[in-house]
């Protein structure tokens, strides 16, 4: 393995380490004549040792760790097989191990860790800046001139394949393009589903017609049998309403058509609101344009009058 590659990011190293880890835990659980607290402490030793060595990148240290792990597997195998010396060695290692490695390894919750880091940064750097104020809704327009960055521009209302769109400025935002593409894709899926249901509905009606013919033939045959054998076959001529093949398809098609019609009505309502917004914006635009024209005329007249007065005095 090249020295510049981290071992924990390589597949072969990860497979070998995970296999060794699982083998050790399995053998710890299989040890006989050990109490539950001792088994738990033994498993914690394995977990903590692997957790301590997970960032080791030295080839020599990794070789020592794997050799120690395989030696521990051999010792546990002997103890599980009933070897008295192996069991004594396991108990001796468990007794000589530090107390901290016998405890449960700390489990870091990523969400809780992020919250702790955010709280620490807030205490260190002060409160975070408040988020920017939300942009006004499209239907809250027209906005006052003081809230605009420049002159007022009348929004452009256009039809995007049946979807009303109100564009405030160019270029068109990427979010608006994504919204339109998603809506058009959704509408096309509904139309495709409606066409497929129409085709399946034709086949279902053929099946219903065939069932009607078969039931009619079976009903006539049951009547003939009843005439020959008396009341033993009276139950065959009872007409019961059975579900038809087309029932589910008709219900599904009605639901799709209702969705298409509801979206169309929503688009019409949205279009009317947008037309109202454009009308108000245009009215304010014409008014502000007239005010600017009047202001320019007034300034021009003032400058012209001042020039004439200076000419007469000279």
Structure, explained:
The chain has about 325 residues and is mainly alpha-helical. It has 2 domains: about 5-100, no CATH class; about 145-225 and about 245-305, no CATH class. It has 7 helices and 2 strands, in the order H-H-H-H-H-E-E-H-H. It has a two-stranded antiparallel ribbon with strand order 1-2. Strand 1 (about 155-160) and strand 2 (about 165) form a beta hairpin. Helix 1 (about 10-30) packs parallel to helix 3, helix 3 crosses helix 4 (about 85-95) and helix 6 packs antiparallel against helix 7 (about 245-314). The longest helix is centred in the C-terminal third of the chain and has 69 residues, at about 245-314. About 5% of the residues are buried. The model is unreliable at about 130 and about 225-240 (pLDDT under 50). Keywords: Signal. This is Mitochondrial zinc maintenance protein 1, mitochondrial.
What value does the average pLDDT take? 81
Number of domains: 2
Q: What is the H/E string?
A: HHHHHEEHH
Number of strands: 2
The coarse overall form would be flat
Percent of residues in helices:
55-70%
The number of distinct helices, counting runs of at least 4 residues, comes to 7
Question: Gap between N and C termini, in Å?
Answer: 97 Å
Which SSEs are present, and which pair or pack?
Layout: H1 11-29, H2 36-52, H3 59-80, H4 84-96, H5 110-125, E1 156-160, E2 163-167, H6 174-229, H7 245-313
Antiparallel strand pairs: 1-2
């Amino acid at each position: 393995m090249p020295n510049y590659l981290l071992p924990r990011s390589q597949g072969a190293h990860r497979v070998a380490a995970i296999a060794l880890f699982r083998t050790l835990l399995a053998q710890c659980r299989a040890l006989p004549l050990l109490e539950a607290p001792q088994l738990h402490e033994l498993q914690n030793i394995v977990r903590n040792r692997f957790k301590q060595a997970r960032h080791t990148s030295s080839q020599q240290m990794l070789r020592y760790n794997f050799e120690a792990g395989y030696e521990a597997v051999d010792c546990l195998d002997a103890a599980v097989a009933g070897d008295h010396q192996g069991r004594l060695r396991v108990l001796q290692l468990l007794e000589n191990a530090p107390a901290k490695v016998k405890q449960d390894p700390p489990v870091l919750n990523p969400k809780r860790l992020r919250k702790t880091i955010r709280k620490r940064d807030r205490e260190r750097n002060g409160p975070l800046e408040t988020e920017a104020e939300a942009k006004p809704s499209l239907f809250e327009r027209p906005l006052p001139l003081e809230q605009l960055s420049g002159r007022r521009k009348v929004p452009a209302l256009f039809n995007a394949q049946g979807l009303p769109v109100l564009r405030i400025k160019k270029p068109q935002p990427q979010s608006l393009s994504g919204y339109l593409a998603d809506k058009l894709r959704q509408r096309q899926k509904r139309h495709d589903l409606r066409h497929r249901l129409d085709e399946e509905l034709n086949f279902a009606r053929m099946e219903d017609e065939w069932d009607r013919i078969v039931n009619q033939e079976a009903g006539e045959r049951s009547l003939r049998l009843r005439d020959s054998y008396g009341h033993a076959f009276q139950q065959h001529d009872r007409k019961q309403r059975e579900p038809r093949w087309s029932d589910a398809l008709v219900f599904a098609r009605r639901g799709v058509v209702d969705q298409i019609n509801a979206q169309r009505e929503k688009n019409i309502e949205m279009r009317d609101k947008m037309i109202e917004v454009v009308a108000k914006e245009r009215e304010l635009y014409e008014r502000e344009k007239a005010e600017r024209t009047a202001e320019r005329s007034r300034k021009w007249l003032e400058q012209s009058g001042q020039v004439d007065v200076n000419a007469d005095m000279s």
